[in-house]
């Protein structure tokens, strides 16, 4: 794993560089508040899950010569857009690859046989196309700003239809004219047009968050809804569809049943329970069979004449994302073979005549580092990293060695907790709860064992806290649902007792425990695909024995989520909501103070916002995309790191870990501080340097004169020399790194970091009353040394 350090003053983007040969007047920089040089510095730990191939949607087609191809849009992250890639199924080679100009994730891809072009859309709203032989992808724009594209299908005449979120709309694109048409919301109230199947006359549309089926008439522009069998009234999504002769085959979740609908009679003629995976194939060359996967049987052939099915003896260890009948031009694969893609970039081929199979790996496809979803501090001293739809697994960073270990099979982790030597975590989807004994080797299936699950339509276990012998878990419901839950989970027995809607229509996203009671913070949001009905997040107190809510309060009027709940040593509860820090007295059950300390911003579930009391007495917080230090006595804040900071974990040394996108960072308190420079002095400088405010940096400077640092101001000198005394009284910080001083050095009463490192002083050195205590390393002094500047 690549590790980077911020060590050069020249790298500080905020620096104002001044090359001076005349005396410098007192610095005029006057920050809004004094900025002490905070102990420590940021350290980049690279990408804990360095690379992945994940193409949520795939399609297949042919080039102009009839060579079969597979099309991938591999996911990116916040720093790196997605990538379009093409695999030749005969050679196995990647024959085209282009990093896209915009868009991270794609769930929409279709090959149009009418014009030999593949079309793909991004969940951020971009639409692209590529025709085999083209040198570049074609940008078709963002047809409907604010709407992500979640499924595409090309009709036989070449018109491409698309489904969107959050409007749940159906649109069309005519490549011949370049015209886009929005046909409106497919089913009233449904926010995802999740799957499409287009023919000459209409388009079948399946929706989410309620599983609904409708047909769009291309001539009249009208939608006609088709009722699913009544047992599917509460299902969440129609996920995949295939038209095969007169039948529409559709898969619904969460049961994964396959429904067979006769489009002529308007009747559902069969149900295949619990198929596995995404797609259903097009009919084989005879027109009689379609293929899909059942976990216990492998690939099965479904007879459209008899509505029976049987395994074919082919069991790829993957579920299908796309199917195509292809010509491999290989005598071992005569006629047409059935090709299946898997969203981790793999391809499986089976020939129905010879029963031979072929496998193409993802080795030549390019992925991108996984976006970090959450961090956790393990009982073994490790820092654990969960990531978005993570094919590789989760990561464990060892602070002692700097090594990162991949723990495969963990899935997408929403939250971490601990008890004893055990790390527990919640997995999306279906609210899986897993228990890992960190004193034993990782082995999915045994350690952790099979997951327990939260019932009552829960999907994302966000918050964990131990209470007695059980774990309390706060969760978010499934897509299209309101009403999270507070659950009590006994990892020893697997029993889960769930109390849904402890605060009506809100999710439970943060938890703390004190004196046998649970304190919970909520989010007004439910699962994706539904608008909140509550307007303000709440703080509640609950009895874990009964699940009874004893009291509720709105700690911050208008706040969307209450996050980061933690107790200080005095028993005061601290939390943050939309940038407002607050304290709560459990005795009076009242908010005792609330101030907007951080920029106001709303986080859907607030898991990016955490609070931590460190042994140095400060409160550290991630909020509004930054890492902050807060003085609990004065509530004065210092921004340590910015630019998209999220999550927070700690190690045994008290260092802080946080994420930016897919990268892991550490605020390492053992590193020399790197404050941003307001004024930088370089080269020869004749005369005194007086630092009256802000941060002044000497970088490669030769100062002929005294250096004086006023109360609250900061001096950072690196690779420089000073001919004259260096004096600081009440400074915000003093850093001398590889500096030669001819004259006395005196640092007294500094309120920020003091570092004297690899520095030579000809003259006396004295340090008194500095808090924190100075860091002294390789200080070479010709003269007496007094007070805190004596090396141990």
| Sheet with most strands | 7 strands, parallel
Radius of gyration: 31 Å
Strand content: over 45%
Number of helices: 0
Derived structural class: mainly beta
Please, could you describe this protein's structure?
With 792 residues, the protein is mainly β. Helices cover 0% and strands 49% of the residues. It has no helices and 69 strands. The chain is globular.
Short summary:
By secondary structure, the protein is mainly β.
Question: Key features?
Answer:
7-stranded parallel sheet; 6-stranded parallel sheet; disordered N terminus; mainly beta; 792 residues
Produce the secondary structure layout:
Blueprint: E1 4-5, E2 17-19, E3 41-44, E4 58-62, E5 68-74, E6 83-88, E7 94-99, E8 108-112, E9 117-121, E10 127-130, E11 138-139, E12 148-154, E13 160-165, E14 169-174, E15 179-185, E16 192-198, E17 202-208, E18 213-217, E19 223-226, E20 237-244, E21 247-253, E22 258-262, E23 267-272, E24 289-294, E25 298-303, E26 308-311, E27 322-326, E28 337-342, E29 346-350, E30 357-360, E31 372-377, E32 383-387, E33 394-397, E34 404-407, E35 412-419, E36 422-428, E37 432-437, E38 452-453, E39 458-467, E40 470-477, E41 485-490, E42 495-500, E43 507-514, E44 517-523, E45 539-542, E46 549-553, E47 563-567, E48 573-577, E49 580-585, E50 590-596, E51 610-613, E52 619-623, E53 626-630, E54 637-641, E55 646-650, E56 656-660, E57 663-668, E58 679-686, E59 689-691, E60 695-704, E61 707-709, E62 714-723, E63 726-729, E64 733-742, E65 745-748, E66 754-762, E67 765-768, E68 775-782, E69 785-787
Parallel strand pairs: 2-58, 58-60, 59-61, 60-62, 61-63, 62-64, 63-65, 64-66, 65-67, 66-68, 67-69
Antiparallel strand pairs: 1-3, 3-57, 4-5, 5-6, 6-7, 8-9, 9-10, 10-11, 12-13, 13-14, 14-15, 16-17, 17-18, 18-19, 20-21, 21-22, 22-23, 24-25, 25-26, 27-28, 28-29, 29-30, 31-32, 32-33, 33-34, 35-36, 36-37, 37-38, 39-40, 40-41, 41-42, 43-44, 44-45, 45-46, 47-48, 48-49, 49-50, 51-52, 52-53, 53-54, ...
């Amino acid at each position: 794993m690549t590790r980077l350090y911020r060590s050069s003053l020249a790298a500080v983007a905020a620096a104002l560089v001044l090359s001076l040969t005349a005396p410098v007047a007192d610095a005029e920089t006057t920050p809004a508040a004094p900025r002490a040089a905070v102990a420590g510095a940021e350290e980049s730990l690279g990408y804990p899950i360095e690379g992945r191939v994940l193409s949520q949607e795939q399609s297949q087609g042919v080039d102009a010569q009839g060579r079969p191809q597979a099309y991938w849009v591999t996911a990116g992250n916040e720093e790196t857009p997605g990538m379009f890639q093409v695999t030749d199924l005969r050679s196995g080679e990647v024959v085209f690859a282009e990093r896209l100009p915009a868009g991270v994730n794609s769930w929409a891809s279709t090959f149009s046989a009418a014009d030999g072009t593949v079309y793909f859309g991004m969940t951020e709203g971009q639409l692209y196309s590529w025709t085999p032989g083209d040198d570049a992808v074609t940008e078709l724009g963002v047809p409907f700003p604010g709407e992500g594209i979640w499924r595409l299908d090309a009709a036989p005449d070449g018109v491409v239809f698309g489904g969107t979120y959050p409007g749940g709309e159906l649109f069309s694109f005519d490549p011949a004219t370049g015209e886009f048409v929005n046909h409106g919301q497919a089913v009233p109230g449904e926010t995802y047009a999740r799957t499409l199947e287009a023919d000459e006359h209409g388009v079948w549309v399946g929706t989410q968050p309620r599983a609904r089926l409708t047909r769009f008439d291309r001539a009249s522009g009208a939608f006609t809804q088709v009722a699913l069998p009544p047992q599917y009234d509460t299902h969440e999504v129609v996920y995949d569809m295939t038209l095969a002769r007169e039948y529409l085959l559709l898969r619904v979740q969460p049961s994964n049943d396959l429904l067979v609908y006769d489009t002529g009679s308007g009747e559902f003629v069969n149900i295949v329970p619990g198929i596995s995976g995404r797609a259903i194939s097009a009919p084989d060359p005879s027109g009689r069979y379609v293929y899909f996967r059942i976990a216990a049987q492998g690939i099965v052939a479904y007879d459209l004449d008899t509505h029976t099915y049987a395994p074919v003896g082919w069991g790829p260890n993957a579920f299908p994302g796309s199917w195509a009948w292809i010509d491999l031009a290989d005598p071992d694969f005569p006629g047409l073979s059935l090709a299946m893609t898997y969203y981790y970039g793999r391809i499986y081929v089976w020939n129905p005549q010879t029963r031979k199979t072929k496998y193409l790996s993802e080795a030549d496809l390019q992925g991108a580092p996984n976006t970090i979803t959450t961090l956790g501090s393990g009982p073994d001293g490790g820092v654990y990293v969960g990531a978005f739809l993570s094919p590789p697994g989760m990561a464990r960073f060892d602070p002692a060695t700097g090594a990162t270990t991949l723990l495969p099979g963990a899935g997408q982790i929403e939250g971490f907790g601990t008890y004893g030597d055990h790390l527990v975590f919640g997995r999306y989807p279906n609210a899986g709860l897993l228990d890992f004994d960190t004193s034993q080797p990782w082995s999915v299936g045994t350690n952790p064992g099979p997951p327990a699950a939260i019932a009552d339509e829960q999907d994302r276990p966000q918050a964990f806290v131990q209470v007695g012998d059980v774990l309390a878990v706060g969760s978010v419901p499934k897509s299209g649902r309101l009403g999270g839950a507070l659950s009590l989970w006994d990892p020893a027995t697997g029993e889960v007792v769930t109390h849904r809607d402890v605060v009506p229509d809100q999710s439970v996203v943060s938890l703390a425990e004190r004196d046998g009671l649970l304190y919970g913070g909520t989010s007004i949001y439910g699962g994706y695909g539904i608008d909140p009905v509550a307007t303000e997040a709440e703080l509640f107190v609950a009895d874990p024995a009964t699940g009874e809510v004893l009291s509720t309060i709105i700690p911050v009027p208008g706040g969307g989520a209450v996050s980061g709940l933690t107790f200080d040593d005095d028993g005061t509860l601290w939390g943050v909501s939309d940038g407002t820090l607050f304290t709560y007295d459990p005795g009076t059950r009242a908010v005792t103070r609330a101030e907007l300390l951080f920029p106001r911003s709303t986080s859907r579930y607030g898991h990016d916002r955490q609070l931590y009391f460190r042994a140095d007495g400060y409160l550290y917080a991630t909020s509004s995309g930054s890492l902050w230090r807060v003085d609990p006595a004065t509530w004065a804040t210092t921004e340590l790191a910015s630019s998209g900071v999220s999550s927070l974990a700690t190690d045994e040394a008290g260092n802080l870990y946080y994420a930016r996108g897919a990268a892991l960072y550490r605020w390492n308190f053992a590193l020399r501080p790197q404050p941003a420079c307001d004024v930088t002095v370089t080269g020869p400088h004749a005369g005194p340097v007086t630092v009256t405010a802000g941060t002044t940096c000497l970088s490669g400077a030769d100062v002929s004169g005294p250096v004086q640092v006023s109360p609250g101001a900061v001096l950072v000198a690196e690779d420089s020399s000073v001919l004259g005394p260096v004096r600081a009284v009440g400074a915000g910080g003093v850093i001398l790194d590889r500096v030669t001083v001819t004259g006395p050095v005196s640092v007294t009463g500094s309120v920020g970091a003091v570092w004297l490192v690899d520095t030579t002083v000809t003259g006396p050195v004295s340090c008194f009353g500095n808090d924190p205590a100075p860091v002294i390393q390789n200080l070479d002094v010709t003269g007496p040394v007094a007070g805190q500047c004596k090396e141990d």
